[in-house]
Write a structure and sequence with these properties.
The complex is a heterodimer of chains A (602) and B (182). By secondary structure, chain A is of the alpha/beta class. Chain A is built from 23 helices and 20 strands. In chain B, the strands form two sheets. In chain B, strands 5, 6, 7, 8 and 9 form a five-stranded antiparallel β-sheet that branches. In chain B, a hairpin with a 4-residue loop joins strand 2 and strand 3. Classes of the chains: A alpha/beta (602), B alpha+beta (182).
Chain lengths: 602, 182
């Protein structure tokens, strides 16, 4: 109905409004939003903005080698700082190349503003050179998006874009700006004076009645568990502090999703490890057997729940989430609390203290006794080797040798990602950047670029696989150009390991197209980029090589040649419940464990 | 827990819940692409659209009203409401079929071709249904009929043997009785 309607901007009559070009408005709005770094790639339809950037010393532009790299770098930047990631790309292929990273940011709730150039308004709809329907393409993969056809709207739209991206459940916002709008002159308004055309007011405080009800339910629990997610990290470092306090008060064990690692310290005795398909044996069993589950900023993803009709069958479920559509989406909730994870945790703590609630000490003793029994099964155990580097061992050594340092970890997607989540431990939030929801191979290397831009003095390591890392390898060139000493630690097993694992377990060992033939020599590749290449083939040389990597003040590609046949365990087989988890020692029977229905699942 | 294995890992295990029709009244900012946002949401998440009407209803406030009739279990209907509410362009959404004071109406234009006794009968039934004749030739009538969807269904059913050749329907509109507003 309104596809061809243009919103006419009210004429700005305030004498205070500065008149500038659309391109200058973009740059000024970024500065006023506190942006210091952005990731981008120039092209015909954004040249005016790049021209304005040329004159703006306050903005540090990182030139990537592919627009997907810009989006992942912005994600890494955002995830490691809590600030908004900013991307600037051109029309057509610039925008379509950014779509993967935009979707990734939507799935993982990463605040990001993506500014895309567009062909001039009079050419829109004519199949012009490098034209695409950017707002049409990105509508389902953004939190919101805009096509700005009138320069008078531009400043307000940009400020609103930042507000939408960073508040409520964070997410990506695309602002598509035709080239003629970038050239046109219009009024600039600052963030304080920006007019919003939308009724956007996310709710952050939880309902007090439900808070009291939830506190009482938790206090009455005999087998409580806190199941936390990325929402706690998005709520800021204070929320992680509150989570620690709440866990202490309630005496409840804590597990977390992949996205939530670091919100609760892995060194705390109440930490159970990650939940889910490749999560900790004790975490999954505790989730299955608990009587009160408190989900905080987590969304009952299928990788967490396994078989839904057998998911934690005996528990009452409290779900705290800032997104109303997450509550009750896949799992029935007994108490749903809409609000910011940090705020609601603080409210729960206040309610707990106010009502002088105490956990049931006798029940807690029994519950922890049961948990210790599960822990004693040592679900992450693997058979080490003195001849070959086991991938788990490589991550363990990487963790031990970087302990106590200021370290940030990114990953690609696959077996190495799960091993990293199992064997690398985090005591602080914002230290772990991984593609959880979308599962984007190629995320980790550009994300490391973004993290290193935000934390130039820190040790930034991408734990990678040989297949994933080739998807965005060209961003090594970005790292060289901007002196970003990222470390790419490749667990090289010459396979798309997780694909191979599923083919082995579910498809009769028919390894259809999962072997990485013609792998490049990663050491020579590093050298070709101007980085440092290292290789370890034997467990005996691993420590020395890792230390050499850490001490190298330049970008490093580390080719860690690991045992090729190793699979990732423990594992909840497809279509099975948390308490049907398979340990590594049971692995040979896996094919018979998964039934026909399970094989159909992703 | 059911004895049968689930069809998928995403199985809700709530098979007892039955689907029902529901009407959502949605107030949105009238801006380019807003209808696509709503329709795209329904398509992407696999929700049905039984009927959809949309028009600007307040030019001053730049708002349009979208009325969608959909079908789903209570859980799906709650999800639809939450997802639509969460869209930045949405001002308000309400499942008006839960409202006992809700009024729903639909308009249809019905073309019937015929001569002789059938033509007379068509006119007689139209009169009973208080349908208006808005166009006539010696071979045809066009009736305009307003009412609940079930009334229009019934009218169309009765016209079918009398030479019904074409139907155009607006889809459902809704509003609340009394002084309250959406």
């Amino acid at each position: 109905m309104t596809a061809i309607t243009t919103i006419e901007a009210e004429t700005e009559t305030e004498s205070t409004a500065q008149i500038m070009t659309g391109a200058e408005i973009v740059v000024r709005a970024l500065v006023d939003q506190g942006v210091t770094d952005l990731f981008g790639y120039p092209g015909g339809a954004v040249l005016p903005i790049y021209d304005a950037l040329f004159h703006e010393p306050r903005l540090n532009h990182i030139l990537v080698r592919h627009e997907q790299g810009a989006t992942h770098a912005a994600e890494g930047y955002a995830r490691s700082t809590g600030r908004c990631g900013v991307v600037l790309v051109t029309s057509g292929p610039g925008a379509t190349n950014a779509v993967t990273g935009i979707t990734d940011a939507l799935m993982d709730s990463i605040p990001m503003v993506v500014i895309t150039g567009q062909v001039p308004t009079h050419l829109i709809g004519t199949d012009a050179f490098q034209e695409c329907d950017t707002v049409g393409i990105t509508r389902p993969c953004t939190k919101h998006n805009y096509l700005v056809k009138n320069v008078a709207d531009l400043a307000s739209v940009l400020h609103e874009a930042f507000k939408i991206a960073t508040t409520g459940r964070p997410g990506p916002v695309v602002v598509d700006i035709p080239k003629d709008v970038q050239f046109a002159s219009g009024p600039y308004v600052g963030p304080g004076e920006a007019r919003s055309s939308h009724n956007y007011h996310p709710r952050v405080m939880g309902d007090p009645g439900k808070i009291a009800e939830a506190a009482a339910l938790i206090a009455g629990a005999k087998r409580p568990i806190l199941y936390t997610g990325g929402g706690v990290i998005n709520a800021g470092p204070k929320a992680s502090e509150s989570l620690r306090e709440f866990a202490r008060l309630t005496g409840a064990p804590v597990t977390s999703t992949l996205m939530g690692l670091g919100a609760f310290p892995a060194s705390d005795p109440a930490w159970l490890g990650m939940v889910g398909m490749h999560g900790a044996f004790e975490a999954n069993h505790a989730m299955h057997d608990c009587d009160v589950m408190v989900a905080i900023g987590s969304r009952f993803d299928d990788r967490v729940t396994g078989r839904l009709d057998a998911f934690s069958p005996g528990s009452k479920k409290i779900h705290i989430d800032i997104d109303p559509s997450s509550i009750g989406k896949v799992v029935r909730t007994d108490i749903g609390i809409l609000g910011d994870a940090g705020q609601v945790l603080d409210q729960l703590i206040a309610a707990w203290k106010g009502a002088r609630l105490k956990p049931d000490a006798t029940a807690a003793k029994a519950w922890w006794g049961q948990i210790d029994a599960w822990r004693s099964r040592k679900g992450f155990a693997y058979r080490n080797s003195s001849e070959l580097i086991k991938p788990q061992y490589a991550i363990q050594r990487l963790y031990e040798l970087t302990r106590g340092r200021d370290v940030y970890i990114t990953t690609e997607v696959g077996q190495h990602q799960m091993w990293a989540a199992q064997f690398f431990h985090f005591d602080q939030p914002n230290r772990w950047m991984t593609s959880g929801g979308l599962g984007t191979m190629g995320y980790g290397l550009p994300a490391a670029v973004g993290v290193q831009v935000a934390h130039p003095q820190s040790l930034v390591i991408d734990i990678a696989g040989d297949a994933s890392v080739q998807m965005t390898m060209q961003e090594m060139s970005t790292a060289i150009q901007f002196d970003l000493p990222i470390k790419i630690f490749i667990l090289n097993n010459e396979w798309m390991g997780m694909v191979r694992q599923w083919q082995e377990l579910l498809h009769g060992q028919r390894y259809s197209h999962s072997y990485s033939s013609s792998l490049p020599d990663f050491v020579m590749m590093a050298e070709a980029f101007g980085a440092v290449g290292l290789r370890a083939d034997h467990p005996d040389e691993l420590d020395a090589k890792i230390l050499e990597m850490i001490d190298t003040p330049r970008p490093v590609i580390f080719d860690c040649r690991v045992e090729r046949a190793e699979n990732c365990f423990p594992m909840i087989p497809s279509g099975k419940a948390h308490n049907e988890m398979i340990l590594g020692e049971d692995a040979p029977d896996m094919g018979s464990v998964i039934d026909a229905a399970g094989r159909k699942l992703v | 827990m059911s004895a049968e294995p689930p069809a998928s890992a995403y199985d809700m295990g709530h098979k007892v819940e039955t689907e029902s029709l529901a009407t959502f009244a949605i107030l949105v900012d009238n801006e380019p692409g807003v209808l696509h946002r709503v329709v795209g949401l329904f398509a992407a998440r696999g929700y049905n659209i039984e009927s959809l009407t949309v028009a600007e209803t307040d030019a001053g406030a730049h708002t349009s009203r979208i009325t969608i009739v959909t079908r789903g279990t209570p859980q799906v209907l709650a999800q639809i409401e939450a997802h639509v509410q969460k869209m930045v362009s949405t001002r308000h959404v309400q499942n008006v079929s839960l409202d006992p004071n809700g009024v729903e109406r639909e308009l249809a234009l019905v073309k019937v071709r015929g001569t002789g006794a059938e033509r007379v009968e068509a006119l007689r039934i139209a009169d009973i249904f208080r349908a208006k004749v808005i166009d006539t030739t010696s071979q045809s009538f066009i009736f305009e009929i307003t009412g609940a969807s079930s009334k229009i269904d019934k009218f169309v059913g009765l016209m079918t043997p009398l030479g019904l050749v074409e139907v155009s329907r607006t889809g459902v509109l809704s509003i609340e009785r009394g002084e309250e507003t959406l």
